[in-house]
Amino acid sequence: MGKQQTKAGRERRKRKEPIGPVKIAMVSPEMVPFAKTGGLADMAGSLCPALERLGLKVSVVMPAYRSVIHGNFSLIDGGLSVSVPISDRQVEGSILQTKLGQGMAVHFIRCDRYFDREALYTASEGDYVDNAERFVFLARAALEALRPNPPQILHCHDWQTALAIVFLKAQPENYPELASVKTVLTVHNLGYQGLFGYPDWHLLNLDRSLFNFRQLEFFGKINFLKGGLVFADAITAVSPTYAEEIKSPEQGFGLEGLFQERAQDLFGILNGADYAVWSPQADRCIARNYGATDLAGKKVCKADLQRAMGLPETAGIPLVGMVSRLIAQKGLDLLEKCGEELLGRNLQFVLLGSGEAKYEAAVREWALRHPGKASVRIGFDETLAHQIEAGADLFLMPSQYEPCGLNQLYSLKYGTIPIVRATGGLKDSVIDYQPKSRSGTGFVFGPYEPAALLDALDRALNLFARPKGWEALVKRAMAADFSWDRSARAYAEMYQRLVS
Ligand code: ADP
Ligand code: GLC
Hints:
The chain is an alpha/beta fold and 500 residues long. The chain has helices spanning 2-14, 39-53, 66-69, 112-115, 131-146, 158-170, 224-231, 240-245, 256-261, 296-308, 332-344, 357-369, 382-391, 407-413, 424-429, 450-464, 467-479, 484-499, and strands at 23-27, 57-63, 76-86, 89-100, 104-110, 122-123, 126-127, 153-157, 182-187, 195-196, 217-218, 221-223, 234-237, 266-268, 319-326, 348-355, 374-378, 394-397, 417-421, 443-445.
């Protein structure tokens, strides 16, 4: 069925048939510009307007985090409230609203005891201990919020919202208004599944029989994501390669069997980049705007970045940048192994990131040992992230696994050549440079080994030393198009198939 659907979609696209005005409710745990811990927020924040541009009717449901309540958004409190069962209690919340884009309604579920906190999921002492309860509440409250104006499609993202699908499908008697709603669950990162001990089961108010290994049980724990994957009408992964990888034991995180079983309903759709925010022509955070026909501005951005990071303002030295959560997924252990060798090359290195304490300590140590060569900023800094994209020559993403990855898409647009490992969306978006044909848009390596990373880096540095070849590569990279419209169309076609 999956293949036929894809063929039908292709033919529809060829005929340039319009997509119908399908009504979508996007339930997301984070979304730009309201709250962000990573790429999921970027993805939701650009997919929704792109769908709207295609003529779909989109609304969004997400938590009213502290950044929402105290942010500079014009929120309307229409006096709407929700009351949801958590265990044997009713928990009350309210709904705030705002509009985005061409009139897209965004509903924020407000319940300050759950969401008015310093962070979204994890504070300095670790994950919030009541995360199960917080996201059971969100899932139930989202369904309540949608009841008066039912969508045709309920599209959820990751474990934090997956239970909305479970509650809807396993307890249809509770949600009669939503009986005909089709459901989609997008997997952004299987490394996070929402695993909680059985003692939390009572919070869900689901029949005990659902706690079995074919539904919500996972090695003795409750698995929120798995529940959603079992009940969703369609599943998407954020790149075609990741949709394949998660069917294997190496990348399936214990759910590979489920993905194999549901292969007909599993689609890989590559994320796009929001070029209104992430392009050197439009970027408001960088020292000078530039484009492929006028690269002078990129030199200005490089000098500006060197200055900001306390590095010598040398134009001719290759500057390698990284913006990343500092966790194993992003290849930090691989980098730890070859950091000294990497910094032994003739280059400058800047890193912005935060994450696990041991990796933060390791990268800080590099900066201490290589002053004037390596400069590290620990923290989350949107402006500096843009400045690194614009000012660096090379962008490093040696991920162990990468469902999609957005920074390589941004880097291509900024002519900041990505060095990536061939995994997930990195493999789907960066083409390895071939000296003979002078083709490619970056440098790609396969094995998760220091030698492979250093080899890709050396190939990049060799070409950097040849300005003409380098400039041609930069221009090819900048011409690559990963705008959202194509990806949004793939989602729109999937929705249309589900409702027809
Ligand atoms: P992931 O969601 O797994 O972290 P992505 O590549 O999809 O990876 O998206 C990461 C997003 O978060 C990008 O927009 C990137 O610029 C941003 N980001 C990551 N770390 C930081 C940081 N320390 N400061 C600012 N932005 C960051
Ligand atoms: C996750 C993944 C990342 C992806 C992002 C947006 O955070 O780790 O690869 O780009 O989601 O889909």
